[in-house]
């Protein structure tokens, strides 16, 4: 298993998949730069030994093969999140999410978009970024906070800490010890940080705690799973945050994607809603899923051969 992890790190893979392909074989796949490819095939016996070793490292129940399980472990100073579940034939599927400590350099289809986020960042309120796993949300957030931290106390709460940054006070969720996001938000506020980063809003309790922190005068940045900037607002409402509190607390929402470029790199694109558009969504008005600026950046990237039409159409 160590050899596979070392190869994944060498290739800077985002994910490793261990998947059954027939009754006697498994395939190991790497997800690199937005693309998945088969690394090697292994026998079912090899797969079972490998999965047991992974679950042991991640402090998961080795004998439980049907129910979903989550865990994590560290390898070569890299945190690895583990997710397992068994299919209807009792064959386990495993996904390993590689979380690299170093902050990776991020390209943009249009760097002015990042400058727009910087300019839109308020002194207080809730600012949320959404996007698929591996879309560069954490890198964007840390880059935003890097300048802010020169004259403000920045405190982060993450699961786990993805990028070590000595300029920040960094706390880590520990589910084994029953220390969750909302618990750490309460602890964090006693330190009176001007800026609070909540790694991910996963449930109603965390959502309400983040909103309350924003309403108390802090700048709170976080991420949430949503398919567009507009859907971030709807998602927060689904999690039970009251409309009137969102109207006051929510300062900006961003949807981010990483797109494969024609020179085999990746570049970020964002769509952002601010106060006026947020109010329209909260009032139930019709708001396009993606803004005019999103479309313009995509079309310009196609015209200048930064991305292909196929990449754009696949969004």
UniProtKB/TrEMBL annotation:
Origin superkingdom: Bacteria
A GO molecular function held by the record: ATP binding
SUPFAM superfamilies linked: P-loop containing nucleoside triphosphate hydrolases
Keywords in alphabetical order: ATP-binding, Nucleotide-binding
InterPro entries per UniProt: ATPase_ComGA, P-loop_NTPase, T2SS/T4SS_dom
GO cellular component terms, semicolon-separated: plasma membrane
Signal peptide, first to last residue: none
Domain Bacterial type II secretion system protein E as annotated: residue spans: 2-271
Pfam families to which the protein is assigned, alphabetical: T2SSE
Similarity section: Belongs to the GSP E family.
Protein name as catalogued: Flp pilus assembly complex ATPase component TadA
Organism: Leuconostoc gasicomitatum
């Amino acid at each position: 298993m160590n050899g596979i992890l070392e190869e994944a790190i060498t290739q800077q893979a985002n994910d490793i998949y261990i998947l059954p392909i027939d009754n006697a074989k498994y395939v190991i796949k790497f997800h690199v730069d937005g693309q998945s490819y088969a690394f090697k095939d292994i026998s079912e016996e090899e797969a079972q030994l490998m999965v047991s070793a992974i679950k042991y490292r991640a402090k998961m129940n080795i004998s439980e093969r049907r129910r979903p399980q989550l865990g994590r472990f560290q390898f070569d100073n890299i945190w690895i999140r583990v997710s397992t579940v068994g299919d209807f034939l009792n064959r386990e599927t495993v996904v390993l999410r590689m979380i690299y400590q170093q902050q990776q350099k991020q390209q943009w289809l249009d760097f002015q978009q990042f400058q727009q986020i910087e300019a839109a960042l308020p002194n207080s309120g809730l600012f949320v970024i959404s996007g698929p796993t591996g879309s560069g949300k954490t890198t964007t957030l840390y880059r935003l906070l890097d300048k802010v931290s020169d004259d403000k106390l920045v405190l982060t709460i993450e699961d786990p800490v993805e990028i070590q940054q000595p300029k920040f006070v960094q706390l880590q969720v520990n589910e084994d010890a029953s220390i969750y996001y909302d618990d750490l938000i309460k602890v964090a506020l006693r330190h009176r940080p001007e800026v609070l980063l909540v790694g991910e809003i996963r449930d109603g309790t965390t959502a309400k705690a983040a909103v309350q922190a924003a309403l108390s005068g802090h700048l709170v940045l976080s991420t949430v799973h949503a398919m567009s900037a507009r859907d971030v607002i709807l998602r927060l409402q689904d999690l039970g945050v009251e409309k009137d509190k969102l109207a006051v607390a929510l300062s900006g929402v961003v949807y981010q994607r990483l797109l494969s470029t024609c020179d085999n790199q990746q570049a970020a694109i964002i769509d952002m809603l601010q106060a006026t558009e947020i109010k329209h969504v909260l009032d139930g008005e019709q708001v396009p899923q993606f803004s005019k600026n999103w479309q313009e950046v995509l079309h310009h990237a196609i015209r200048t051969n930064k991305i292909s039409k196929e990449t754009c159409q696949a969004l």
